[in-house]
Specification:
Layout: E1 7-10, H1 24-36, E2 41-44, H2 56-70, E3 76-79, H3 85-97, E4 102-105, H4 115-128, E5 133-137, H5 139-142, H6 148-157, E6 161-166, H7 171-184, E7 189-192, H8 197-202, E8 207-210, H9 217-228, H10 232-250, H11 255-263, H12 280-292, H13 295-298
Helix pairs in contact: 1-2, 3-4, 4-6, 6-7, 9-10, 11-12
Length: 315
């Protein structure tokens, strides 16, 4: 069953100007680049976009900018995660009014709530957003695990459940989620939170929310295509290269990603405090890793239309 939101999901960074304000022009160029690179949907602002450092009004402005820049070319999902349900509801209503396809929602930050309260939280926010929601399971960030048992109740109570982004990197948990979705016969995408596509698609996964596609979209899409084609030798080689790049993505997250974009001629400015720019030695390491994985040779430089040598990166 081909899922509606399967594939490589783009997650734009938040660009900042020298005065620390949001650079909306560069944000729009980034959205254009990701869409031209073949992403199947966009989610923003995620942790890679420094969501915790954005003012509430900036989040509202960026939600409108995301929808406007995408222009209906791909679905758009706005992250509306906060510590309180009412805060998430207000942002979800705004996302719906802005024309977003739906919302992304984590469990409430730094809150220990019962499974019943957790399901009610997701259901209330989904209703405020018009029903379409991608749940984000990230125990490290929230202290709460969306277990298959909790997800099953959410699936039953939220008709517009669109996907689950799983950041646990526990293959047993991910496989259980895929089995649950298959048992329900629902159009719900099972997405990894990083590009571990080879093992995840093998157990029923549908794609990933991608950080590497910011600077290496051709590589990520090639890996996805190889996995779908069941070309294990090719996929294994590409997965090893992507796995090395994921170490760059996670280094001083997401500062090294911004540096990688700088190297690729698509600068998005410095991070916001308390994050600090990389040292000259760290910057040199990022560029060396991009060279070692073939990114500098094979990927596009600059912002213009992102097409591979065959003419398209779309799966």
């Amino acid at each position: 069953m081909k899922k509606t939101y399967a594939g490589i999901i783009g997650s734009p960074l938040t660009p900042f100007k020298h005065d620390n304000s949001v650079d909306f022009g560069t944000f729009e160029r980034q959205v254009d680049f990701l869409i031209a690179s073949g992403v199947s949907a966009l989610v923003h602002p995620m942790h890679i976009a420094e969501s915790g450092s954005l003012l509430e009004e900036e989040r509202r402005q960026l939600a409108r900018a995301l929808v406007s820049a995408a222009g209906g070319r791909v679905p758009t999902f706005v992250n509306v995660s906060f510590a309180g349900t009412d805060l998430s509801i207000e942002m979800a209503k705004h996302a719906a009014q802005s024309g977003a396809t739906g919302v992304v929602l984590l469990p409430p930050y730094n809150r220990k709530v019962s499974p019943k309260a957790l399901v009610q939280h997701f259901e209330a926010v989904a209703n405020a957003a018009g029903g379409r929601i991608i749940a984000y399971n990230n125990r490290e960030a929230t202290g709460t695990e969306l277990t298959p048992l909790i997800l099953e109740e959410m699936f039953d109570r939220i008709p517009g459940f669109a996907g689950i982004k799983n950041a646990s990197l526990n293959m047993e948990t991910f496989a259980d989620i895929c089995t649950l979705i298959a048992t329900k016969g629902r159009d719900i995408a099972a997405l990894t939170a990083s590009e571990h596509l080879l093992p995840s698609i093998a157990v029923g996964g549908d794609g990933c929310v991608s950080g590497c596609s910011e600077f290496a979209p051709r590589l990520v899409h090639a890996l996805y295509r190889a996995c779908l084609a069941n070309d294990v030798p090719e996929a294994l080689e590409l997965q090893r290269r992507v796995g090395r790049l994921l170490k760059v993505v996670r280094y001083n997250y997401p500062v090294a990603v911004k540096q990688a974009l700088e190297v690729m001629g698509r600068p998005v400015g410095l991070p916001r405090r308390p994050l600090q720019p990389l040292t000259p030695e760290e910057k040199a390491w990022v560029e060396a890793e991009l060279a070692a994985t073939g990114v500098l040779e094979s990927e596009q430089r600059g912002w213009e239309r992102a097409r591979d040598k065959a003419g398209s990166v779309e799966a």
